[in-house]
Structures are given as C-alpha cells and as structure tokens.
Design a protein that fits this description.
homodimer, alpha/beta, 20 helices, 24% strand
C-alpha cells in the first residue's frame, strides 16, 4: 500500500483495460494480457462459472459478451507486489450489477484476472448495509409481529404458496444455499431425508471430527464463534447446522424424500413428488437444486463369493460406531479418508483391523497441512484483516490450470519435512502417492474427490502395526470367514466394511429426474485433467457444479464447507436473476 | 497513522509514563497529567471498576497499587489526533497479566486514561489464537468424544461435582457471563426460573422489539449475523439466546428458582438452596453472581381505594398481549419506555388508552438516535474496522464524569433537529425533559435506569390523540370504574397497568441472602450524580455493578446487552483470578 509503484502500474493497466472494454475493442484488450493468460469469470461476463485460457478464448468470450454486459466503472482497491507479481483488487459494474475482481500483473501484462458478479442491480442481498430493519417504526393496528409472520410463512409455503426454488438435500451445501437465497428474497424450501438439520453429520461414525480447520469452514453471514474449536467434532457440527437453519429462518422440511421430478418446459415449473413425514406432497418450483452431497449414492465393489462369506458386509456410509465390532476381525476395504477413519474407530473400539489398500493414497499429516497450507485461512490471516470472504477471493483468483504449480511446490516441502514419516509408513507396505503430477491432496480432491487422507492419527497406528495393511494385491473372492487374494493369501474376517467411495452425483439426478437427463448432464465434479478417474477433455472448472447444466432450471450445489460457502453465492445469484426476469445469457453453456 | 506528530508525542508521553511507573515515582507520573485528569481502571491496577478523578486520587491509587502491580512493557498502538486531542491505544503488562488502554492527550498532558486487564498471565481465554483444538490428534482406546464429554459434564456438574460459580438469572447478563466463564475454564451453572433460555424476552409483550440497533447488542464471541435485522424482535432475541446457550455449551438449569443463599466464610463456599423443576437441590459454589436483570422486583405504587375499583390492576411485568383488552378502557400509569410500549400495544389491539404521566420524560426519536448517536456502533464503523470490541473500549475511554459534556451537545443537536416533533408532543400536555442538566437519555439510563423513551411510534399516537395523556396532576384514589385525580377530575378505567418500574436489585439479594446483606450492599446501579433518584455521594462508576461489593464472593452482573457484554469480561476475570488463587488486592473496596 505504501509502495507507489504498484499503484501507478495498476491504475494505468486498469484504465487501459476499462477504456478498451468500453470501446468494445477486443484486440486492445488482449494486448494488455500476457501470452499465457487466464480469465476466470463467475457470472459477471458469462453468467457461467468459466475460465478462459489464452487470448483466443478470451477474445471469443469478449466478442460474445461485451455488448450486453457493458462493463464500466473499474476502480482499483487494495494491492501489493510480491515476487515480481502485482496483485490488485478492483471493482466494476456491468448491466447486471456490481462486480469485484482480482488481477495479477507480471511486468505490465495481466497473467490472470478474476471477475465475479457480487450484487444484482436493484437486488442487494439483505445483509450488512442492506440488512433488514426488523421493525417498521410506527404503530399499526394491523401489525404482524416477526413471530406471526414466520408462522404464516412456514404454514403457507409449499401448500398455499409455491416456492420459487426447492433444494434437495439439507446438508451443509443445501443449507448455505438456502441462507443465500433467503437473503435475496427467493422463496425456497429445503427438503432433507433426515429428521433434523445436522443429522447427516450426527449419523456418521462416533469419532469423526472435521479434517479442515475452523477458519476454512465458515458458513455465510454467521461465522463460527471466536471460541469455536479448530477442528469441529461431528455432533457439534450437527448442532451448528441445526441452529443455523433456525437462526437463518430457513424453511426446512426434515423427514422428506424426493421421489421424482418432472420439468414442464412450457410452464417453466417442476413437478416434484415428495414423501414428507410419510405423506405424499407435490411441489411446483421453478428451480430445482441438487445438493445431495459432493458425491452420489454409495459405490460398492463386487465381492465374488459374498454369499459364502458368512459375515457382515457393509458400506462406510452405513457404519456408525466400532462398539459393535470389539474383538471382531474386521477388514476395511479402501485406504482413503473414510477407510482410515473407520479403521481407527474400529481399533479404538478394540477390533482387530486390516486395511485392504487397492490403490496408492496421498497422505498428509494434519499438523503439517495446518502449518504449511492454511496460511490464508488462519487466526493470523484473520488478525491481518484477511477474513474468510477475502481469503476465498484470493484463492479463487488462481485458475485451476495454474493451481498444480503451487500445489507441487507445497508437496515438495511437505515430503521433505515429513520424510521420516513417509518412510516409516511406506515400510509397512502402505502405498503412497502424491497424484500423477505430485500435486498432492487438494488437486486430487478437485479431480476425483477421493484418494487422500489427512492424517489425524491413523498413519501412526499403521506404522505401529496396530492396523495391518494388505496392499499390492487384488481381492480374488470371499470364502467362508475370509478374503482370498489373487496371490493365494487369505485374511480372516468377521466383518467387511467397504470404504469404497460414492458414485457421481448425476446418478441421483438419474434416479429422481430420469436416466436420460442424468446421462445428458453426465459426470459431476472433476476438472477433466486426464488423470486417473478424471478423464478429459479439460474443463477448467468443476464439471456441472454451481452453473447451468445440460437441463434448464436445474443446478448442482455441493462440495466441502469452503466450496459450498463460496459458490452458494453464485448459485443463489443465478437463481435470483432468473426469478426477477433479469437476462442471464450464458456463455459456454453445455449443449 | 500517517501524521508523524502524534506518533512522536504519544511515544514520548508513554515512555515517560512507563519510566515513572517503573521507578514507582508518583510525582513524576502526576506531572504527565493535566490538572483536570481522570484515570479509569478496570482491574489492571485496582482489581476494581474504578475511576480516579484528579491528581490526588490518582496519587493515592498509585501509592497503594504500584508495588504489587509492577506495570511495564507499555507499547503504543493505533493513534489519531482530532480537534486538539491525541488519542492512542496502548498495551502493557502487570504482575496479573496483559492489559490494554486508551489515553487522550491534550497538549502534552494526559486528560484521561483507561487501563484494563484483558488477560490473566497463564490463563488466556479459550478464543481466537487460544481457541480449543476440538480434538487431540492420534488414536486412543480411551477416547472420549465431544458428545460424550458434554454428556458427562452435564450429568455430573451440580451433583457429583460442584460448580465454582453459580449465576442466578439466565437472561442476557447471566448468559454472557456464563460464556466468558466457560471460555476461562470456570465450572459454572446458570439457574433461571423460566424453562428455556430466551424466555425472559419471549414472555414480554407481543410487539416488543429491541430499541438499540444490532451493532450495539452483540454478545461475546459470536456476533449477530450479517443478515440479522437492525432491531431484533423479542422472540427472535429469545431464539438467539437459546441457540447461544447451546452453542456455547453452557450448563443452564431452566425452571430453577433460588430460594436462599448462605455464605460460610470459613469454607469460602455458599450454600445455595434451589428448587429445580419442582425438586429441592443444594449447590455449594465459591462465587455467587446475581444477574437477575438491571432491576429488582417490580415496583408498584399504592393506589388508595383499589378495593373499590372493581377492575383489573397489574404491573407491566405481568402484561403480555393487548388482545385481552380490546374495547376496554385502559389506564397506563407511567410514561417511560414500558408505559409507551404497553400503551402502543394496547392501542394496536383496539383498547381505549390513557397514559398517566407522573413526571417528565426524556423522549428521543429512534431514527434521530440512529443518525446522531450510534456512529461508533454501526455498519459504517464496522466497515472502517471499528468492531464491537474496539467500539466498547472507545466508549469506556471517557469517564462518567466527562460524559455529560458530549451528551449535552448531542441533545442540543437533537432538540434542534426535532424541534417540531417536541413542540407537537408538548402541545398534548406530555411533559418532556432532558434530564436536570439536559444530557438526555443515556445519562438518565446510567443514573436511574428510568425516565426515558426511545420513540418507535408511541409519540405520534400521543400527538394524534390516539393515546390520551393525563399529566401534571396527582392520583388521589381509585373509585369504582375510574381513577380520581387531586384536581377532582376522573378518568374511567376498566384496567390499570402500572408501568412504574422496578426496585433496586439489592432487594433481590435481600430476599435470597438476607435483609442485612442486601442493605449492607445497598442500592445497585446509579452513579451518585445527586440528580433525581440518584442520590450522592458521587461514585464515578455504576454502584455495585461488576465489581466487589460489601460482601465477599458475591458479584452483580446486569445492564443492557452492551454493558452486559463489556463488563461480563471483567466479572469473569475477577472470578477466574479468585479460582486460580491469583492475588486480587482490591483498591477502594466497599467496607
């Protein structure tokens, strides 16, 4: 801030950029960019979640969008220069509303730019300077109190009046989106199969604690308290979500399952059949959001001979508590997060645990991750004024295509720092990888949402031989009381727990809407990196998430707490714009 | 910050101040102060809530405390110069722990200084950089999950184990103190006569909405969300408090009434007899806190002839909803906040309302107050980095003795701005005052906690004649179906509602501990200003609030949300220090 050089450089660049855009002069705009350039846009220009990579892609986008977006009023905000890169925040306006962005200059050229729509013209979200008053001053004989208004709304929405939006899935993703939509005044019902908000956390295994720290996990509008633990225990997370739903005044239908959904293109409305507390009910929302978790239904692997096995076989999603398995021989199939967590829980309960590892896993110690990877989301960052909203923008300012560079550097440091740990773990036969390009956990999460473990204690049990590992060999079949492997070896088992992950979310859509629609939308999540389980072509953003898909009036919301928090804003803006009849021409829409 | 003059001036002053204190050189310290100087100290030097006024008082305090507090490590923080006054934040250390303060220099001399103890050495509050981890990493067969630990604690505290502290009263004051004590690791039970946290708000009249804006009302650790309304409706406030108690993991016994409390000086323990959900139970805490509201039991006035009246007579604390009084003739006795709110609620329900005004009232329009009086607590202030904790410190930096100056200036502006409003209101016969020294609402609140109304609509009803006013004449007696006044006039009434305020909180102590102890402690609240209902001598701080009183191991916590928030920190630190056996020599303790 006190260095005048970046100020002048940024002001000059932004003025030239603004002038070129106002003139609709695409070549002049492109001249301001480096050859290897990236423009990441969230709604502001594209009404899409889109990264344009290289000048040709940017030119195409600008040709298609400049006239109707009419960007203007660019103004620089905070800036800094570090290691030859000048980073500057800026604000701007389009015909749709107010935008914010971050640009990064290398020399005098722009390497990356992020543009985001933050507020729809004339429809600010009811928060901060636009928070509701809570009371109309003055006395009125027709006064309806807050409580009475809430009762009326709760009683009528979904029966006398129809919601504009229904969110299927009342976990964190659905709840955060529900809060955003409410702040935008979009009548919404969240439907959830569990009775109470937070049950999706409460129902998980006993010892579960969030693997990400509190600073990364905040929900919109109401951050976790200053005295909240760094790692939230699962029941406490459940209680937080339940309180959040109540305090945010969301219309939340627990014990409700979606049966089927059919879209009427003429009416622009869905017919959504539900079973609510045992009784059928039909809703007719304009917009339908699937927020049933980042993943779809449980994925199980075929185990030939299971009819002869004689013991219990279950998927990790059905596992609750190790107590039932004390003194049992339990084989856990799968060595990623849920495999480790279930194995530890079983070991703590006194079970004899063997983990069957089918493919290499990225392991990283939680303490190391906290020390090296969460500097943007930390108490220290917050004390320096980088609150969670700023941290999100800074994170998003780097396009997915460039993230492997930083990720690889991070994992180079991690492997060096924890070399002894990794050596000891590998000595047990446990197979470690850091992804095909050594970029570690986060890139795996974006690409496949699987194949990693943040070590909060499981690895030491493996190193100590307390949890045995069977790896490098395939399962042949089950035999009575044991698993037989292709090398002829056997592992005795009373119980088998499949920690084998989940299917893609489009399987949920296939079940509720139709197979045809599910397949048309296709895989959800993943970047198209061409690495294992993430086939190309390259998308540059998460497939089908948070943006228009190959079906009208349908959105997919999901991801961890951080992604749900950040992108719920953009899903909500897309839905609000459609409700208000604001034009939302989508650039790069799926066919 | 960019003006180097205050930097040099502050650094020089603080260095000289620190050097003089380290040398225990009281005359040299005094030489740094202006003649008309004030030192406000919260625990850091005095283990008391104390303002020293003038050099002699400061000298006496320093003589008594410098040796054992050993202040050092003074360091300047943010500073600014405005209108000839240099204001600077600073930090320091004493033998007890970490302190923060604000000093204001006029010329090179200190006019006012605030010193506060913020953290006990070795006992940081579990928040921010010291927040709990939530999980010990590693696997353990004796693992107790968060839920299990909470259940165990809830089941045992008060039966198998004794709390160190019991708070009588589970409204906002008790709840906030409970949260502070929990963050400091002080085993505490809050007892409350209502079943659920928040009921003390829910039980009030239907149309009640907080008169102070959200930015002024935050609770510790967990501020109101960004989308929370400016003025919180009473039931929503109830829900917030209930969620807060749960999320803060407070041990809260609803449906519990304190019967009697007896202190054993030998054991240093109270014997506290309670009725919990109909059953007697005894607790033996070391510290007892009365947090039964800023006021004691309802105050009623004698109404001669009430046996002949024939209608209903009730106190405002028993009033809920105007619906029962539609088409009734209701007389509201009292013209302050509750008098107005009840009158409006009755009018909205269709009652025929007359307000009997017994003494002049300070009225100020809510909109005006928001515009002119809440700049430190506002969305704008928050956006400028003045969060609620900073705003509190800035507010407290001005000693009570100097507050009338700013208050009078504010009310001079208010009377000018709203001259037409006040003229119209006075034309109805309504008697307005702004306090004996024209200092308005806030000083009245500190002095007596009564005699004012923040107008949210009641005044217009009076101006319009919708609510009739009877003022300037005394009630003589009740007669059948009417009130007769000393001038011979009568006002017909089916119902009389006494909005006549509450007794001093020491009446609650008298009832539960003993009359002798209640009287020894004496009046709670008030400054000793010598103005109406606030007899001298001058105290300089609120009488008996938040600090040692004339009985050991007893504290009084109360006030509006803002005062409860701010001072709960200091009550909690006093209790924590006593629990840990940290010496707390009290300067200026009541005898």
């Amino acid at each position: 801030m006190h260095d005048t050089a970046p100020q002048a450089e940024v002001t000059a660049w932004l003025a030239a950029f603004a002038a070129a855009l106002v003139r609709r002069d695409v070549p002049a705009t492109l001249a301001l960019f480096a050859e290897d350039c990236y423009w990441r846009d969230f709604l502001a220009f594209t009404w899409n979640i889109k990264t344009l990579e290289g000048k040709a892609a940017i030119a195409d986008m600008l040709d298609a969008t400049l006239t109707h977006t009419a960007p203007e009023a660019f103004a620089a905000g905070e800036m800094k220069r570090e290691a030859g890169v000048t980073e500057a925040w800026f604000s701007f306006r389009t015909t749709s509303g107010h935008g914010e962005g971050i640009l990064r200059l290398e020399g005098s050229k722009c390497r990356t730019i992020l543009t985001t729509l933050q507020e729809l013209e004339g429809h600010p979200e009811g928060a901060g300077f636009h928070r509701p008053m809570g009371v109309r001053h003055g006395a009125r004989r027709d006064r309806e109190t807050w409580t009475e208004a809430r009762w009326r709304e709760t009683a009528s929405l979904g029966t006398e009046t129809q919601p504009y939006c229904v969110i299927i899935g009342g976990g964190q993703g659905g709840i955060m989106l529900g809060a955003r939509l409410r702040a935008l005044g979009v009548p919404t019902i969240i439907v959830e199969k569990n009775p109470r908000p937070g049950d999706s956390w409460r129902n998980r295994y006993r010892s579960l604690v969030l693997h990400d720290p509190v600073w990364y996990d905040h929900l919109p509008y109401m951050p976790f308290p200053a005295n909240w633990p760094v790692f939230t225990p699962k029941d406490k997370m459940g209680d937080w979500l339940e309180a959040y739903v109540s305090l945010m005044e969301l219309t939340y239908w627990g014990s409700t399952e979606a049966q089927s959904a059919r879209f009427d293109p003429e009416a622009g409305r869905w017919t959504l059949e539900l079973i609510r507390e045992g009784k059928p009910i039909t809703l007719r929302p304009a917009q339908l959001v699937f927020a049933t978790g980042a993943y779809g239904p449980p994925r199980t692997i075929a185990l030939p001979g299971s009819e002869t096995f004689g013991g219990e076989i279950l998927h990790s999603s059905a596992y609750r508590d190790g107590a039932a398995y004390a003194d049992k021989k339990v084989v856990v199939i799968g060595a990623a997060s849920s495999g480790h967590d279930v194995a530890v829980d079983l070991w703590e309960a006194g079970a004899d645990v063997t983990m069957v590892q089918r493919s290499p896993i990225t392991v990283v110690r939680s303490d190391t991750l906290m020390e090296l990877a969460f500097d943007t989301y930390s108490e220290g960052a917050a004390a320096r004024g980088i609150d969670v909203d700023k941290a999100d923008m800074l994170t998003m300012a780097t396009p997915f295509a460039l993230q492997p560079i930083g990720a690889k550097a991070l994992y180079d440091r991690i492997r060096e720092k924890d070399a002894d740990f990794y050596a000891a773990l590998e000595a047990t036969g446990f197979l470690i990888d850091f992804g095909p390009d050594d970029t570690g956990l986060l890139m795996k999460a974006y690409r496949t949402g699987s194949g990693y473990y943040v070590d909060v204690g499981g690895s030491q049990l493996i190193i100590d031989g307390e949890i045995k590992v069977k790896s490098g060999v395939e399962i042949e079949r089950l035999v009575p009381g044991a698993i037989r492997f292709t090398d002829g070896s056997e592992v005795a088992a009373d119980v088998i727990i499949q920690c084998t992950g989940f299917q893609s979310l489009h399987e949920v859509i296939a079940r509720i809407v139709s197979r045809e629609v599910g397949d048309r939308i296709g895989t959800c999540w993943g970047l198209g990196s061409g690495t294992r389980n993430d086939p190309g072509p390259w998308h540059g953003e998460l497939r089908n998430m948070y943006k228009p898909v190959a079906h009208p009036n349908l959105f997919i919301q999901g991801g961890n707490l951080a992604l749900s928090r950040y992108f719920s804003k953009f899903v909500a803006l897309q839905i609000k714009a459609r409700m208000e009849g604001i034009p939302t021409p989508v650039y790069g829409a799926p066919s």
